[in-house]
Amino acid sequence: MATRSHHQNPTPSTKKKKTHKNPEANFLYELNSCSKSKDLKAAISLYDSALSNNTRLNQSHFNTLLYLCSTFATDPDFKDLALRYGFRVFDHMMALNIHPNEASITSIARLSAAKGDGDCAFEMVKKLGDYQVSPRLRTYEPALFCFCQKLEAEKAYEVEEDIDKMGLSLEEPQIAALLKLSADTGRGERVYYYLHKLRRSVRWVSEETCKVLEDWFCCKASEIGSDVGSVKEAILRNGGGWHGLGWIGEGKWVVKKGTVEPNGRCCCCGEQLDCVDIDDVETEKFALSVAGLALEREGKANFREFQDWLEKNAGYEAIMDGANIGLYQQNFAEGGFSVLQLDAVIKEMYTRSGNKWPLVILHNKRVRALLENPAHRKLVEEWMANGVLYTTPHGSNDDWYWLYATVKLRCLLVTNDEMRDHIFELLGSSFFLKWKERHQVRYTFLKGALKLQMPPAYSIVIQESEKGSWHVPVVCESDEESSRSWLCITRPGGCEDEGKTGSTMETCEIVNGPCCKSSENRNNEKCDDKTTSMTGKRKERSP
């Protein structure tokens, strides 16, 4: 019988003991245990013991201690202890010439802010540059929130400028803090600026941010005027949903909380919300990006020929991904390219657009095969006669053609393609998703019957209207959009007078609870898919 060798591998428990035999490693292991269990006193005791035993400390030891101290810096029972040891640990770290990293500076900034020293917190962030380390948004937060709480507006704005210089983007908590600071210090123009920054950053706001907005619209603001004509032009130029020209209207603000009907009409004030598009600058940039990528991947002569053709035939209001529609649900034994499906969608889009034919992008190989089939030839020839078809050349990718045409003509795109391959190659995903929401038409065939899913009647984003009113969606736990609360902010006389309109905020009227409709007729209004207008193209454009 074999006997157990003394040279066999050690048991797991033996391994564990050997792993932590080194004093420095053992100290770090025990510190991490304290961090996980949030035991500040035990960690401090370990630190004092390490000093007594002359244990060699490194950056990881100091960072763990600093993190624990910063975590307890706002706890009334541990604040004094956390601050005292936190700064002591940091001074010790610097005395040993151990360079701090972003985590170290974030912790010491939090400790500085906890004792009300926003200046020290901000200075710590600036020192990161000395160590060639880039700060993160969390590194700036202590200084920013400290200045906001102490109503030191100029200092808070300086922190924001530094954040922008570093290429970082504010999120809702930071924007809400700056918005509240600006409201509390009577800076109306800044409130307007941060309200738009919030609009660009989030689709809906938290209940806490909602309360900040409610409070602001009960305050006074400086008078700001905008020309009514320029407001309409700005909204069209921006893609709808905002103008950015300043406060509009006069008199008391009326703040209500209510819901929005499926057709996009606010139940509180009756105003129609927009389906928001990307703006003119973004659209042009998008079109150039698509064209640039297509010219890299496609035959340059072929795609340029398509660009020239599109310039001369720019009247289309809908583009169709012919292959996507024709091959929909055709993965069965007798399946193939369904001409009938494609024709059904063509006819439906023709009807919806007031008898205007859509443009179908289809590969020339596919079109040739259809023309060679006697059963399909007449229908395909009919499409060609009506200017419905554009055939892409051999070796080309249809996707670039229908995507470019849709962006360039600012019209609808009929496809079930999620375009995931394009998102990462083009601009930001949020930019692309915003465009898709406004322009993509999806379809299904249920037992042979076509059903189109048009773009939504309105966008669930913060909206500023031509009349000067605001509509702010609030976070919703339910999946049902009909249950989402919106903050409806209006005042009488907004944009009613021609020429200049001024705004002087007075004490607002706040109405909570269910909102009443302004007329009985709106109770009967329903959103009908069949009568949804063709909303892809923005017809009115400023030069």
From TrEMBL:
Q: Which cofactor does it need?
A: Mg(2+)
Domain PROP1-like PPR positions:
15-222
Which processes are annotated in GO (biological process)? Answer: tRNA 5'-leader removal
Q: Does the keyword Manganese apply?
A: yes
Q: Where is the composition biased (Basic and acidic residues)?
A: 519-531
Organism's domain of life? Eukaryota
Record keywords: Hydrolase, Magnesium, Manganese, Metal-binding, Nuclease, Repeat, tRNA processing, Zinc
Q: EC number(s) for this protein?
A: 3.1.26.5
Q: Name one Pfam family in it.
A: PRORP
Please give one Gene Ontology molecular function term for this protein. ribonuclease P activity
InterPro entries linked: PROP1-like_PPR_dom, PRORP_C, TPR-like_helical_dom_sf
Q: Which residues form the PRORP domain?
A: 261-488
Show the segment(s) annotated as Disordered. Answer: 1-22, 516-543
Catalytic activities: Endonucleolytic cleavage of RNA, removing 5'-extranucleotides from tRNA precursor
Entry annotated with the keyword Chaperone: no
As for family, the record states:
Belongs to the PPR family. P subfamily.
- Put simply, this protein is called ribonuclease P
Organism, as annotated: Gossypium stocksii
